[in-house]
Design goal:
three-stranded antiparallel sheet; about 120 residues
Length: about 120
């Protein structure tokens, strides 16, 4: 869509305007001193997209977003929206990739963005 997702290192979800609400994620912001809710979503990435749509900041579509100077690998077929990042049964996010056909576990992280950064480091991009 060409949306710029607003990454945040100070947010537990990894995105500005996205908050964990029970088992779902809420997109919201302050507008003229009032809280405006943009909805509840199944993933932090979906909520971040809703927030980006609401604030109306567009940029040309890119292959990946960036964090910590690394390109993050997006995936339209993965629930987390990041290649190599999966929801762990604990509710956290697991990063993994394959080396010569063997699965390599990269760790479990609090946010999908942190896991995506680990994946990007591991694949050297």
């Amino acid at each position: 869509e060409g949306l710029r997702l607003h990454l945040s290192s100070s947010s537990a979800t990894g995105y500005r305007g996205v908050f964990k609400n029970g088992s779902r994620f809420q997109a919201k912001q302050q507008v003229d001193g009032r809280q405006v809710c943009y909805g509840y979503f199944g993933t932090a990435v979906e909520a971040a997209v809703a927030y980006a749509r609401a604030v109306g900041e567009y940029q040309p579509p890119a292959v990946a977003t960036e964090a910590e100077g690394l390109k993050l690998h997006l995936s339209s077929s993965n629930m987390t929206s990041y290649k190599g990042v999966y929801k762990h049964p604990s509710g956290r996010f697991q990063a993994e990739h394959y080396v010569r056909g063997r699965q390599v576990h990269l760790g479990i992280f609090d946010t999908a963005v942190e896991a995506a950064v680990a994946y990007a480091r591991a694949v050297g991009e």
